[in-house]
């Protein structure tokens, strides 16, 4: 109860952590029941603050919501544990084969950026450098999973706690929607790895700090702009790591 | 039990034991369970009983009514879609809804923020003394009076930090900057303030 991260529980309950801290702390929550319990109590306390701001929503909101609800079928309950409908994943036989492929993809993706976003050339270069440093780590692994459309490769530098997602040929999303990356434990809540967008060709190279120890899969979901606290189950596709 | 067909006739529910004697008696969790079976009137009732809390909080954070309505609608649509998957073991439905709503409201303001706008908003905030003004509107509500009392029991610095973080939507780093305080001090104030509130309100995890 007295370790350093515990001090973040209050700010976390108020959604006041910086994005990177939020991820770090959520990863910690998955492993620390004491902090998880403290956070729950604080979140319920924070919820009480909304007693002070009660305000009737406009009637149009109710009408619009119920109109939309009538058009959406509620998802069935999760019957078999925590399993989210999983597209048959194809795991690359050899990590190194996949790594070679991933490097080629990075070259393509970054090349594409350089071409289409010359104003951000420097930014792209620094990202390329950062990703090269991930790929240079001796313990890096790369695993490619076929998705319903396109594919996702998770490159993971265990020692550096770096994850790079290489997405290829992913569907472009309508306005107001975003992709979100998740770390998924065998049991319990998913931990967000942040949101990302794909380029015009549906490609992306997205890097995030993360320690996958204790997680069994990664996932990509489609969420409202800004991302969600937990993935929208119907949109989740699993990525092998 | 998991029929996909809307079960609108309340008398035809499968479990007589779970059937509420009157609409008022149905808990939010009961209404959600009915929603999971496609019961739109049950969902409408759930909305009617919780929306003022969720929308009011979102409006406080986001401020723009149109955007606040959007955020609120997203929260409820997600709830409808995932009604069958809500785990009541984690605590009540309303705190969960408020938690999701707050996260989304905060994400929305942060996505849209520009530093100049933020400075203006802070000036506005401090002038308005949000707790004083908002509480006046809700004077008649006993529950809100109780929360207000508990807030009054905090030290002013604790209150200010919590106010800026929760209703202002600022990160603790921003709060520290706004208050010209070390980050560690702000973390401690937020945490100690919430613990005091939690204990005074008798909230259990």
Relevant terms:
heterodimer; A: 241 residues; alpha+beta; four-stranded antiparallel beta sheet; 6 helices; globular; B: 205 residues; mainly alpha; 0% strand
Characterize the structure shown:
The complex is a heterodimer of chains A (241) and B (205). By secondary structure, chain A is of the alpha+beta class. Helix content of chain A is 33%, strand content 23%. Chain A has 6 helices and 8 strands. In chain A, the strands form 2 sheets. In chain A, strands 1-2-3-6 form a 4-stranded antiparallel beta sheet, covered by helices on one side. A 4-stranded antiparallel beta sheet of chain A has the order 5-4-7-8. In chain A, a hairpin with a 4-residue loop joins strand 1 and strand 2. About 12% of the residues of chain A have low confidence. Chain B starts with 27 loop residues before the first helix and ends with a helix. Chain B is an all-alpha fold. In chain B, helix 3 packs across helix 4 and helix 9 packs across helix 10. Chain B is globular, with a radius of gyration of 20 Å. At the A-B interface, helix 1, helix 3 and helix 4 of A face helix 2, helix 3, helix 4, helix 6 and helix 7 of B.
How is this structure best summarized?
Chain A is of the alpha+beta class and 241 residues long.
């Amino acid at each position: 109860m007295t370790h350093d991260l515990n001090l973040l529980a209050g700010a976390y309950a108020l959604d006041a952590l910086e994005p990177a801290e939020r991820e770090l702390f959520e990863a910690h929550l998955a492993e620390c029941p004491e902090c998880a319990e403290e956070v729950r109590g604080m979140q319920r306390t924070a919820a009480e603050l909304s007693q002070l701001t009660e305000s009737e929503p406009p009637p149009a909101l109710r009408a619009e919501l119920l109109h939309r609800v009538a058009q959406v079928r509620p998802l069935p309950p999760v019957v078999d544990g925590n399993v989210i409908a999983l597209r048959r994943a194809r795991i690359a036989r050899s990590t190194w084969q996949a790594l070679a492929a991933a490097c080629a993809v990075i070259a393509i993706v970054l090349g594409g950026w350089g071409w289409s976003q010359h104003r951000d050339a420097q930014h792209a270069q620094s990202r390329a450098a950062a990703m090269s440093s991930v790929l240079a780590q001796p313990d890096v692994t790369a695993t490619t999973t076929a998705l319903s459309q396109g594919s996702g490769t998770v490159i993971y530098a265990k020692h550096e706690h770096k994850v790079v997602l290489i997405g290829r040929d992913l569907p472009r999303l309508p306005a107001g929607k975003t992709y979100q990356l998740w770390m998924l434990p065998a049991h319990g809540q998913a931990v967000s790895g942040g949101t990302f967008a794909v380029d015009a060709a549906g490609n992306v190279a997205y890097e995030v700090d993360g320690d996958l120890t204790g997680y069994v899969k990664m996932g990509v979901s489609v969420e409202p702009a800004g991302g969600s606290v937990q993935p929208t189950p119907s949109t989740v596709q699993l990525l092998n790591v | 039990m998991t029929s996909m067909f809307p079960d609108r006739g309340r008398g035809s529910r499968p479990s007589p034991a779970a059937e509420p004697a009157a609409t008022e008696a149905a808990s939010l969790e009961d209404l959600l369970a009915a929603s999971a079976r496609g019961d739109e009137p049950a969902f409408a009732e759930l909305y009617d009983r919780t929306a003022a809390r969720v929308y009011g909080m979102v409006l406080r954070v986001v401020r723009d009514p149109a955007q606040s309505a959007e955020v609120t609608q997203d929260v409820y649509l997600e709830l409808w879609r995932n009604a069958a998957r809500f785990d009541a073991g984690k605590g009540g439905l309303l705190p969960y809804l408020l938690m999701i709503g707050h996260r989304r409201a905060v994400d929305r303001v942060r996505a849209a923020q520009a530093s100049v706008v933020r400075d203006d908003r802070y000036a506005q905030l401090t002038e308005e003394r949000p707790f004083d003004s908002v509480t006046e509107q809700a004077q008649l509500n006993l529950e809100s009076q109780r929360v207000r009392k508990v807030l009054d029991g905090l030290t002013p610095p604790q209150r200010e930090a919590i106010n800026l973080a929760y209703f202002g939507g600022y990160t603790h780093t921003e709060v520290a900057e706004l208050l010209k305080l070390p980050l560690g001090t702000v973390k401690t104030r937020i945490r100690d303030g919430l613990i005091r509130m939690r204990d005074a309100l008798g909230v259990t995890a």
